[in-house]
Amino acid sequence: MSKNLIYFTVGPTQVHPETEAYVHDALESGVCSISHRGKTFAELFARTVASVKKLLNVPEGFHVFFLGSATEGIERVIENCVREKSFHLVNGAFSARFFETAQELKKRPEKVEVAKGQGFDFSSLTVPAEAEMVCVTHNETSTGVALDMQDIYTLKRKYPEKLFALDIVSSAPYVDIDYSLIDCAFFSVQKGFGMPAGLGVIIVNDACIAKAERLQEEGMNIGSYHNFPVLLGYEVKHQTPETPNVLGIYLLGRVCDAYIERGIERIRTETDEKAEKIYSFFGKHGAYKPFVKNPAWRSPTTIVIDTPEGSAPVMKTLADAGFVVSSGYGKAKDAQIRIANFPTHSLKDVEGMLAAL
Question: Can you give the pLDDT at residue 3?
């Protein structure tokens, strides 16, 4: 694998430019050898949580837990917050996984499903009365559709008694969330944070904790060492239940600090500018076109392009020029490419990638 390649893959993706230096610092300072029950780790845990909260503007009353992945986050949310019924907005493979996980956990989920490449008509959505939690994938990585947060907030205001869980795997830290209208959000670090994979982060409020405790008191299975009450018990000590990905937690803190210094509003503005350049290019291209036709539904962070003559030749052209993109997802593997647009991708690299086409 060449260092000279620029990875526009949708996850894992191009690593943060200071990753090598951060890893060197971790090795030099002994981070990878410290005890997860010692004072040094507790300080590291506290610093990283503080940086995550500051970058993402997470208010008091929310807790940050570390998991193995965002896929685990899906399971933890359902186990800890749903007694019987969850309600899911499904418009692609990853929102479908949220729904299917609830089925596998023997819940009785319901869903509203639209075609791939589509968003939702929130004005017509009706959440079932029995639903305890509404599960939303903000940015569907498989199709390149991003939902409007204002629509999600409107739905929450309509159903304030429901818990709302938000998958922000492909939109954090770009997405700007009003946490007073969200109960839970989760992501992994190998996309927008430009880190090696292997760490998931879940942000939950006290309402989610209380629901988990009630289910546990009722004798329901809410998981074992990674259930919310256990995670909370260790969080107050700035620890994790198990020996965690200490290097990942350290790197996340360093990347968050770098993003804070850079400025989250600047990151969002730059992301929008790069997305506009990419969509404009393909909107004018003779052969390759954006898969998502409605501009209001187009993701600024994961961009899906139809390649009618096949994705392989396009990917080879780009790879020969030093740029790696993702193929389409699932059945669309050979008919689409997917282009990441995360904070680790510079405008110069975007322009170079487009010039290669």
Answer: 66
Between the alpha carbon of residue 220 and those of residues 44, 187, 208, 223, 325, the distances in Å are 34, 26, 15, 9, 44
End-to-end CA distance of the chain: 22
Which residue intervals of the chain are DSSP H helices? 19-29, 39-56, 70-81, 93-104, 149-158, 206-217, 228-235, 246-262, 264-284, 311-320, 347-355
- Residue 110: phi and psi, rounded to 5, are -120, 160
d(Cα 210, Cα 222) in Å, to the nearest integer?
12
pLDDT per residue over 116-158, tens digit each?
Answer: 999 999 999 999 999 999 999 999 999 999 999 999 999 999 9
Taking every pair of Cα atoms in the chain, the longest distance, rounded to a whole number of angstroms, is 61
Report the helix count and the strand count for the chain, using DSSP H and E.
11, 14
Q: What share of the chain is helix, strand, coil (3-state, %, to 5)?
A: 45, 15, 40
Look at residue 4 in the predicted model and tell me its pLDDT: 87
Under DSSP, is residue 63 helix (H, G, I), strand (E, B) or coil? strand
Q: CA-CA distance, 252 to 259, in Å (whole number)?
A: 10
Phi, psi of 205 (to 5 degrees): -95, 180
The CA distance from 169 to 185, in Å, is 9
The answer to whether residue 78 scores a pLDDT higher than 60 is yes
Q: List the structure tokens of 316.
A: 């080879």
The CA-CA-CA angle for residues 303, 306, 312, to 5°, reads 100
Q: What is the pTM of this model?
A: 0.96
Count of beta carbons in the 10 Å neighbourhood of residue 322: 14
Q: Which two tokens stand for residue 241?
A: 């239940």
Whole-angstrom distance, CA of residue 113 vs CA of residue 21: 45
Q: Enumerate residues 6+ apart whose C-beta is below 8 A from 229.
A: 209, 212, 213, 216, 222
